[in-house]
Amino acid sequence: MFPQALLRKVIVQVLRLYPSVPLNSRAAVKTTVLPTGGGPNGTAPVYVKKGTAVGYGVYIMHRRKELYGSDAEAFRPERWDPNVKNEVDLKNIGWGYLPFNGGPRVCIGRKYPLACSCSSLKVPSRGICPPRSLVRNHQTRADV
Ligand code: HEM
Prior knowledge:
Shape: globular
Number of strands: 4
Number of helices: 5
Order of helices and strands: HEEEEHHHH
Helix content: 25-40%
Bound molecules: protoporphyrin IX containing FE
Strand content: 15-25%
Distance between the termini: 35 Å
């Protein structure tokens, strides 16, 4: 594995286990229903009245075993390698990986810190650090 490719995965992994914004919230601008998250098993819809604040824990979500497998707590950068077989396929992790949030208010500087970290560590960087699939996902969400 090339060092810069490994470094990219290390940074992505650090932001998974130790997200800089571990808790976040939004207020509903209109009454809506979240498809899941309610009921005793968390599988029932949730009614959200206009004006209600909804908090979400990125730190906790990034450690969920349903999303990342039984080794979710492990620092294992190679889990982001598309050639490595994981218990849970991370190819479509989508909204399960949110260090920069998503949607219309996604972090506009999301590509910059990762690219800079690579160069400040004196590892030649070929472009943007996070796996391209993740960057693509976030760009898509910004357009929602
Ligand atoms: C590892 C570094 C960074 C992380 C983890 C990070 C994370 C985030 C997160 C989670 C948000 C969404 C906050 C929210 O909506 O509640 C955000 C927003 C934002 N970030 Fe970053 N960020 C990083 C670096 C940067 C850099 C380097 C810049 C600028 C060069 C930047 C500029 C912004 C701006 C302007 C917003 C507000 C976007 C908006 O509300 O429309 N961020 N960031």
